[in-house]
Design a protein that fits this description.
The protein is α/β, with parallel strands linked by helices and 342 residues long. It has 2 domains: 2-123 and 308-332, ATPase, nucleotide binding domain (Nucleotidyltransferase, domain 5, 2-Layer Sandwich); 134-302, ATPase, nucleotide binding domain (Nucleotidyltransferase, domain 5, 2-Layer Sandwich). 41% of the residues lie in helices and 19% in strands. The chain is built from 11 helices and 10 strands. The protein has helices at 39-42, 50-71, 91-108, 117-123, 168-179, 185-193, 218-230, 233-236, 238-266, 282-295, 314-322, and strands at residues 2-7, 12-21, 27-37, 81-87, 112-116, 136-141, 146-151, 158-162, 271-275, 300-302. It has a 5-stranded mixed beta sheet with strand order 3-2-1-4-5, with helices on both faces. Helix 10 links the parallel strand 9 and strand 10 (300-302). Helix 9 (238-266) runs parallel beside helix 10 (282-295). The longest helix has 29 residues, at 238-266. It starts with a strand and ends in a 20-residue tail after the last helix. Bound molecules: 5'-O-[(R)-(carboxyoxy)(hydroxy)phosphoryl]adenosine and zinc ion. Zinc ion binds at residues 117, 121, 142, 276-277, 311.
Length: 342
């Protein structure tokens, strides 16, 4: 099965062509995975500006689509199904991808599989073709989401906990903005944090003892404001800034790791999967991998292959394969800001 997938939920215009083979266990071959990032456009604002994002998707999508076909050395005639992110995200951004895909569906007489963006982050773990054992606990950490999702089998999602305010990636982006170190904040903080001392500044571990699986990162943001006021050297001295970035990253990693491990114990899972843009963070990856090995017996830890953590369309194709029963005609696809993950 050859799938052409499109993603425009936020600030990446992406198109991928993915082959799926194998009968019982699917094998994914990514033939092309084209991403046009709008990072530079939104950087001066320290966040995504929806109307700018929408216009940029409109401008870029034909080129990204043609490049994806070219790099995959394929034609529309060879595509078996189309896939597109329909939710969650910025509606005016989603609509560009949805409507473009509808046009393709009409013109080439192909079915379209609507894909939920969070399911796609989860299914990005399958792109590396590792065997993944159930029950599976997903920790999805992106610019818009922080969710612990239990899966007993394919397409069965139970949300155990989620953020009550800011998402983990959003916290990285907002803190980076306060520090004036660039956008997107995650990679900027991670780079500085690499050689910093994570024990130098005391920051809270919000909701660590809340007794549930929810998260809250806005309190951490407030603590960051107080800490910067109390320690003016953070804004003046590069070493202090590095130490602060490491301390912040550690606070986020500690909360995510602890809650994930506790949920894994309670639900006796066989695999923990970390996904979403923040899963690109080395400290978080290493800490979760280390803690899983140290505290849990025979639990595997998986992460997406390089390049599939942050938004991309190959993960949309992977999710489309698993949810292909939802394929419909071009007339029936719509976009939605917050469709439930089900
Ligand atoms: O999944 P994603 O590309 O888009 C959404 O669906 O939101 O995630 C983007 C988020 C941004 O907030 C960005 O700052 C964060 O992922 N991010 C990171 C790193 N790379 C990207 N956060 C921490 N460390 C990183 N290395
Ligand atoms: Zn995403």
């Amino acid at each position: 099965m050859r799938i052409l997938a499109i993603e425009t939920s936020c600030d990446e215009t992406a198109c991928a062509v993915v082959d799926v083979t194998g009968r019982t266990v699917p094998r994914f071959t990514v033939l092309s995975n084209v991403i046009s990032s709008q990072v530079k456009l939104h950087a001066p604002y320290g966040g995504v500006v929806p109307t700018l994002a929408s216009r940029e998707h409109l401008k870029n999508i034909p080129h990204v689509f043609q490049k994806a076909l070219r790099e995959a050395r394929t034609t529309m005639e060879e595509i078996d199904a189309l896939a597109v992110t329909y939710s969650p995200g910025l509606v005016i951004a989603l609509l560009i991808g949805v409507n473009f895909t509808r046009g393709l569906g009409y013109a080439y007489g192909k079915k379209i599989i609507p894909v939920h963006h969070i399911a796609a982050h989860i299914y990005s773990n399958w792109l590396s073709n590792k065997a993944i054992a159930f029950p599976l606990l997903n920790i999805v950490v992106s610019g818009g989401h922080t969710e612990l999702v239990l899966m007993k089998r394919i397409n069965s999602f139970t949300i155990l906990g989620e953020t009550r305010d800011d998402a983990a990636g959003e916290a990285f982006d907002k803190v980076a903005k306060m520090l004036g170190i660039g956008y997107p904040g995650g990679p900027a903080i991670a780079k500085l944090a690499r050689s910093g001392d994570a024990n130098r500044y005391a920051l809270p571990r919000p909701m660590l003892l809340s007794g549930d699986y929810d998260f809250s990162f806005s309190g951490l943001k407030t603590a960051v404001i107080h800490c910067i006021k109390k320690h003016p050297e953070i804004m003046k001295d590069k070493t202090a800034l590095k130490n602060f970035c490491a301390s912040f990253e550690q606070a986020v990693a500690d909360v995510i790791t602890e809650k994930t491990i506790r949920a894994a114990q309670e639900y006796r899972v066989k695999t923990i999967a970390l996904s979403g843009g923040v899963s690109a963070n080395t400290r978080l990856r290493e800490q979760l991998a280390r803690t899983t090995a140290a505290r849990l017996n025979n639990v595997a830890f998986v992460i997406p292959a390089p390049g599939f953590s942050t938004d991309n369309a190959a993960m949309i194709a992977a999710a489309a394969y698993f949810t292909r029963a939802r394929a419909t005609t071009w007339k029936n696809i719509d976009a939605s800001a917050h469709a439930p993950l089900a």
